[in-house]
């Protein structure tokens, strides 16, 4: 029903399959009024829409017509349609004249593709007692709806809405309980008041505490979110669908949507974008028009802007630059920037879903970039790497750093107990923003070379690097810090004095590939992979390492784009023999064993266990329950997703171990 095609952080490009066609996500569902609609939203990019089943039910003429000809003909839309149950009217008027069971029956009767149970939308900042009472009703109705749908063998898919007001623990509880029901989609409800009042920080807490407890294999729908300025942030938090009537409601009030906010027509001197409306009309033209014609044109602009932003977001996910887009968009309003900083508190969660390598370089756009998954991941790996006795810290230069470090390295200052430097027992690292310290032996791995930051460091990045280095140097007996590093930082190191001895960095390709293997697969992988008569083959054109052999037997290839190691059959055998179960492993059931041995790709439904540390794009070992090596390949999903999905590919197998 739902498959992931591309990933970046929690954002994903997916395909939602319905009886009326497939929908690419993330996507927007424009709200269609069953009687008043004047805009053909499909013409402007709508693949799926949402309308209100309760409004149709309460209008006798519409109700009769919908039952006779079906919902799609009623609103003249042949694609997938979602219907709301009347919860919005319940939140506005306090009551609705329909039961939960009746609204489920009616949605099936009129052939909606995705129906919704009659949840209780609980406004933000209510009392806990109110939120808890409403939540119990929402959960009861969700269970009733799923049970009734299943007992009647209904065709429509079903939403179960996450409620809980602004209490994170209640959102988590609701998501946990709804997950047990196995609905088809999970909207996150009652968030419109937060967005209308610019409480974006609280919105982050609501969404993250909901999404983190919902299944990865089902789409999530942020209800009522229709302003393009918030789409990128919401997608990065894992939201797949949005719905709103904002495109027409704002148009009726002469307001034009944009990714930077909202423009009032009365204040416009220039049209704000390059859509068809903005290219063909001036603000004066619009102001001079009859109200209805002006409304429809502004609504067209609002739809164009919204769908253009979603296309841009999907492209950003494909190329791995979603967070750069989020950081750009969140600078459109101080409260959005506050929300982005709040999202930094969920870095551990986001890291689980972030691919290990991406097509796009890492661009540092400000202190918020320090909380991105790539930085967190590198710091964690750096702390786990084996350390030598001494450390030399060099200033940043041209990337890749190791290519341009040679000869005399300059003047250094000593921190710690002064003793003779043993180059074979010394780590050489480069000071870097945003990654803190980068060992020269692994500096070509993505994104350590594939990143850019301003040469002028901001205060937050300086504080980050000073705190990190002050902690990190304590692991070493002696630290030699380059004079240019001392000039940049105020790291509060005591017992620092001048060192005039010549220090040189000696390049060693074997040490380099062993360090990369340890960084990629775990400590000890380097020694396990690269033993014997090691022969390292380089590109004649670029001088970069391409292939590594034991004699004439290929162990690994090194991918040119990101310097990750790609296992061969021999490399997979060596890594498997040297690492403990379930490290680097994906475990498949007996049904999948013969296909894996033959080199067929692994589908998620056949996976029964995997290493929690696996991320999308990782090289993995495919084994059976007895830890017999069956094949090896590349993970397409992270561990959380592999274990949750029951459809789609999980591992792209490179080769099976069948003789």
Account of the protein in words:
With 659 residues, this protein is α/β, with parallel strands linked by helices. 37% of the residues lie in helices and 22% in strands. It contains 26 helices and 31 strands. The protein has a six-stranded parallel beta sheet. Strands 18-17-15-20-16-21 form a six-stranded mixed beta sheet. Strand 10 (220-222), helix 10 and strand 11 (241-244) form a beta-alpha-beta unit. Helix 6 runs parallel beside helix 7 (168-181) and helix 11 packs antiparallel against helix 14. It is globular.
Question: Topology of this structure?
Answer:
Elements: E1 2-8, E2 11-18, E3 21-25, E4 27-32, E5 49-52, H1 53-58, H2 60-69, H3 71-74, E6 81-84, H4 87-93, H5 100-109, E7 114-116, H6 128-151, E8 157-159, H7 168-181, E9 186-188, H8 192-196, H9 200-211, E10 220-222, H10 231-236, E11 241-244, H11 246-252, E12 255-258, E13 261-264, H12 276-280, H13 283-287, H14 291-319, H15 322-329, H16 334-343, H17 347-351, E14 362-363, H18 373-384, E15 390-394, H19 401-404, E16 412-416, E17 426-432, E18 436-439, E19 451-452, H20 459-472, E20 478-482, H21 483-488, E21 496-499, H22 509-521, H23 525-529, E22 534-538, E23 545-550, E24 553-558, E25 565-567, H24 569-578, E26 585-588, H25 593-597, E27 602-603, E28 607-610, E29 619-623, E30 629-635, H26 639-644, E31 649-656
Parallel strand pairs: 4-5, 4-11, 5-6, 7-8, 9-10, 10-11, 14-19, 15-17, 15-20, 26-29
Antiparallel strand pairs: 1-2, 2-3, 12-13, 16-20, 16-21, 17-18, 22-23, 23-24, 24-25, 26-28, 27-31, 29-30, 30-31
